[in-house]
Amino acid sequence: MFFKILFYLIGVYCVNALQDFNVASADFYVENPWIKTQFTQQPCFFAPLVVINVQTQLPFPPQTICNVTSNPLINCTYNFHFDSTNTTLFVQLYLWVPPKTFNQEISFPLFLSEAEGIKRGTILQTNKPLLFSCDVLDDPIVVVKTLNNGSLQKSTEYSYSYFGHIQVETAKPNLVSASFQNFTIYPVDTDNTFTIKLKSDFIFDNQPTLNVSMLNQVLIFQNPFALDKIEQNVDVKGSYFSTLGFPYYSKILLDYYFEDGLDSPYSLDSFYFTHGNSTHFQRYQWGFPSPPSYKETVYNGTKQVFTFIPLVESFFIEEPQNRYLSTPLENQEYISIIDANFNTNISFSFEYNGKTISSSYPFGLINVLSNGTMVNRFSTYFNSLYDFELSLKSPNSRVLNFPAAKKANSVPSMKEFNYTITGNNSINFRFRLIDDFGVYNYYFRHQSIGGTYNSFETLVSGNEKDGVYQLELSNVNKYFTYSLTVYNINGRSTYYSYNYLYLNYGIGLGTSLTFIPLKYIKDVYVEDQVVDVSNGSFNTSLYLLVDKSFPILQDSLFTISLSGKLFPSFLNNQGYYQFDIVIPAKIRKGYLSYSIYFNDFQEGNEDIYSIFGEKSQIMVTSGQFDFIGPVVESHGPSIPVFTFTSTSDSVDLSWSIRFSDMSGFKSATVNIISDFDRLGYTFNLTSSDLISGDAYDGVYKMQFPTIRYCKNMKYYISSLTTIDLLGNSWTYGKLSNRDLHPLYKYDKVIENPEPTFELICNYLVPNDIVPSISKLVLNSPTQLDTLSNNRGVKAEFTVINPDIIGISLRHLPICFFQTFQFADIVNATSVIKTLTNPNNITYECIANLPYGYGLRSNVAVSIYGISNNYYNLIGYSAIDLQKQFSNSIINTTINQPTITSYTTFESIGGKLTIYGNEFGNNGDNSVSIIFSNQTTLTPLSLSNDDHQLITDHIGSTNISFTVQLVNKFNRVSNLYSIYPKILCSSDCGVSLGYGYCNNRGTCTCLGDRAGEDCMSVNSKPIITPNPISPSVNISANDFSESPSFTSFLSVVSLRELEISETIVNEFIFDNTKWENIKDNSSTTQYSFKYSLANTTIVSNVQVFTEATNITFGNQQLQMFPSSIKFTFDISAYPFAKSTNSLQLVMLATFKSKDTDVCSFTEFTSDSDYDQYLKIQIQDRSLFGRFVKYGIIDGRERVVTNKLLTDISIYKSDESQTFIGLNIPYYSKQALLDPDFSVLINTDKAGDKENSICYEKSKGLTSAQIAGIVVGGAVFLFIVAALVIFFLSRNSKNFTAVKLRKIVARN
User: Fold this and answer.
1) If you write DSSP's letter for every residue of 385-408 in order, what string do you get?
2) 885-899, 1059-1073, 1203-1217: lowest mean pLDDT where?
């Protein structure tokens, strides 16, 4: 563990100084506490980071020493640096303290060297040194024992190491890791009891148990590698494959055959594995020289060593040749443009300023030599004040350099840094960056998930030489570790480390303070301990309970890493962090490897197993495993050679390719080219191209267009990507794969040569006639506003061919737009504008450049991919075009106001701050806010500058809206969407631990808390669903003074309404006609069907005994304990008009068995998602939630829910409430999902305005008393008859009239 300890340096004084300097404080950060305990007589290692703050700025940096008091055995080394103001000194110490050393004093005096009138030896000395102790675990009363009955788990798939767990009980603190008796020990502190993970890579295969002596005690472990447990016949076969294009590298593919099967310990370690099962599988290695022989030892079976003779082949290097840089052209200020020239045989990539750009045809290609070698030339911008370096790869790297004539040595710096927590797991960072020549970009890194490069798009004020940048990150918190690297346009950089940002600005925890001790983890368990992924992926959950005493629990973020993916967590009703994870299909059998991240610190499943055992682990089973895409078994053209005897000949070519994959072929993309036809032909293969076999082993056909022109050349596969039905994919690129790939079987060049198709020309082919560009026009503004909404550019050019052979219509030229430091290369394929004749064609390229493109360097245009019919290629770099036409550079500027970001805007309304460019000054602009209903608000601006504007008095809204700015020149910015942060209508009792506000704007309640604000308690009523129709009886029998209650829920009718809400049709449900459609013997879930003439209504009634999270549409809903959910699935309905709608009517009744009570009924909206019905009598309430959306014709649509007051009845002791669920017009299906609970409230109905209370009379007659008794007794009868009343409210039928009178009286 790591602690921050703050020492105040008192009594600091200066000796023989002309001037006093005060030291304010020293902050000490040390790895582990000041005392450590070793297992053996070894020194303890400490690495404290000492930060000393000096109150007065020193004229020059002071020096320091490591001052060890009276102990020559202490080994102390250090390095240090001062910040730019000479006021903060960072000293990194490395200490080795001998064992049995206690309270060793080490201090760090500062002294100033002789300069500026300050004498040598001036001392700034602390009065409080650091104290270090190194103890040894030699206490004779230490208790040591094994966990899990001394079992060992196999740990990895490659060395077959294993791990077990030991518990050590000692009062000595802070055990440290150590090597011990062929094991490595990893202590985990849990309050003076250390659980030790004992891990070894040394295999003892000749003994059934392993005896470990520790602290004079012998611990016995069961050996999982003992031969008597795993002896079986094992065979291993292998063969070598060349790694074409890379010198001295090869691949080896091994086939393993196990008689009884390999017990794989981990399931997700797919590196080096291809596919197979437990008895036969493959794995491969690559990147090593081919040895004269190769040995493989297998420990999961009879120990066996095999040797074979490798494939011996000649190796060659594929790398750029004839490399040089041309003379640069000046562009603007210190930005120049230069051409890189080189030859390759395949496509290339290049690296510049840390970025790798992969080129593809035809970028850079200006010619093809007679031997098929590509001649490349492309232009690139660079800073002439800094040495230019360009790394070319094809696939091996070579570097081109251009020295700066005059160097600029400035380095960027950060002058200000602050952050604001803007919402749930979101932080807004702002920092001021300065550089004499300009900041190019910055890399802000988050330790767990990596970082991003950002540039002017995040600039909110100032400019590139002195500007404030703003960056908002989500799924982070202040306890993560962050670092910042700032780059200037010269390529120089400044790095601000994790510790620097923490120590100076308080963000993160520094690199030494990121962990959570396991003692704070109280429970870990999984929902499914054994899962089978043989036939598909598996969804399950893992649960984590963290002790509430964990100091930073409230703001911590917990995620789980699995198979390279991060899964988030949420706090469920039981107070556990719940991770819903997906285990991929067809992975290896064994324990699932996972890591839980606590902010930036992670705990792997091995450590978690040491405390929580099997319940925290997932055993994966799978009949097969598959980690690779489909493999090419064979391929080839329909004919190997075709000879053209005259110019009138042509050939119809097809190419077949056979794929195999144990999971099934899904798709493939195949590119077949020749040395001269570098465009070639691309085929996207799917199951429709299958001509024989099946998805697991099938042959697919590629049909070429008719080839009408000849050149002596061969066609071959240049690139290939395959994908199987699991999603496994991999890619082949000619001469560029070091590891295994889909075409690896053709890497045995001698045994299995690659198939090709050859064209032979028996007549003279015009190889020397090359097309050219005769005219170029760039149609763009004189000054392209790179931050405006109009960033469209167009290049129009004419290509001529000096012969009658014609320009190839298949090879369309491509325009490339480039800017400084390759902030992406934008390309646009040309279209034919005018075809004057086959040898004179005018093309145009149209592109919309990215925001800010060319801000620093203008935009250069190059054109590649021009060819005539005889495959004579040509291309032009930007410098080529500039030299010939003097107009290949597009000048850029900034005028357009552009909104780029905003601060978090809460749904309650108020201030909004937007950021961007070209806003103007105060009073120079106006802002319009456009809401979804098209109403517009023009709020006053409180303040603004060129990059920031603040407005106020924006009303509350949960719906997103757009904002737009107009400057004084009447230039209109982009429309920018604002998404309000939704707030709950209450605090959800968060301070009391009752719940919290979720991202739906509703409360998620914890424990037994319930209701829209979590202030109610579940009453745990008796719920009795009707087994023959969708209705539910609810009763609450209380043993306190509170009254008892009964409730009844049912679905009553289906209405068709006109737009005026006039009833067109009405279907009253007869409870005797509901049909059971599943076994309703369950006491928690029932399903019924009601059939009308043309429509079917399916009603599901589900009772939830415990708190549960369910999903409806794209929303997650919380079901309270003892709640009832109705789901209605309504099939197609024959609407009379498309403007009509349906209304599903439900009845909710709530009655007290006492009469001297008060009632209150309300129907409200708490968020954009939900409406609530609350019928309260005294402190009890029937709580109904009606979601404001339904799944209508397969997608979420808004539905309205209405309280039908005209037919509802409200009295002091009962409420009979009808609710209409309004469904918009639809064609296929409507799905609705209301739910209900009975709750205990903290307030009473009589305390609320508009409540109905019992009015006591002076006396009651016998008839009145009898009426009350009869009224209570017949409540259930009345409820059952309400449907008849509802149906007959306008009827003249005698029974219906009489029933209405009875209900009205009661």
Assistant:
1) TS-EEEEEESSSEEEEEE--SS--
2) 885-899
